[in-house]
Specification:
By secondary structure, the protein is an alpha/beta fold. It is built from five helices and six strands, in the order αβαβαβαβαββ. β2, α3 and β3 form a beta-alpha-beta unit.
Length: 200
């Protein structure tokens, strides 16, 4: 019985040690990832894909018949989301990122995020609304927009999680920034440089 207890205890300590090593190794990797992302934005010629800031919980879409230009109808931003959007703009300014153009999905949660960053004039772009089976041209247009960017500054695109997923294969968190480098001639037309977590 004592021997069995010792065996269980040793296994538990080994598991804890492995988890500690994994966490310790992941933290510097995440920090480097963020540093690379900011460095690319400062350098210019890159694209910042930003998922809109925190919006009220929903089923992942809007009810039928909503109007994109009526911000009382679609899900917009929570107070946390508004704070995040302003903090995003502050972070870009603190890092002295030159922003040459800002496009946002016409949905209010994206347009409001873009406007609250106060990084410049915002233009609505249906290319940033998630593509569907009836609108496959949106994804093609998005790939062309991103892969064709040359700068000299940064292109900021404020969009939806599903739009990023269809382009890159994963869904970022709300208010998370994914920094990509245009790579014309490749499948998606982009290479992921790094991610910047949502402002806390």
């Amino acid at each position: 019985m004592v021997s069995e207890s010792h065996t269980v205890l040793r296994r538990a300590w080994r598991t804890l040690a492995v988890l500690t090593i994994a966490i310790t190794a992941t933290a510097p990797a995440a920090a480097q990832n963020t540093e690379d992302a900011w460095a690319a934005l400062v350098k210019g010629g890159h694209v910042a894909l930003i998922r809109h800031a925190t919006a009220p919980a929903g089923s992942g879409g809007d009810p039928p018949g909503v109007k994109s230009d009526d911000c009382l109808t679609p899900r917009s931003l929570t107070e946390t989301g508004r704070v995040q959007a302003k903090a995003l703009g502050d972070a870009f300014r603190a890092h002295r990122v030159r922003v040459d153009a800002i496009y946002a999905s016409p949905w209010c949660r994206c347009m409001n995020t873009a406007r609250l960053t106060a990084l410049g004039r915002v233009e609505g772009a249906w290319t940033l609304v998630p593509a569907t089976s009836s609108t496959p041209e949106r994804l093609s247009a998005l790939k062309a927009l991103v892969s064709g960017w040359r700068g000299p500054g940064t292109l900021v695109l404020i969009t939806h999680g599903l739009t990023v997923q269809r382009l890159l294969g994963f869904v970022p968190d709300q208010a998370e920034t994914v920094v990509v480098e245009p790579t014309p001639g490749t499948g998606s037309g982009v290479r992921v440089v790094g991610k910047i977590a949502a402002p806390q």
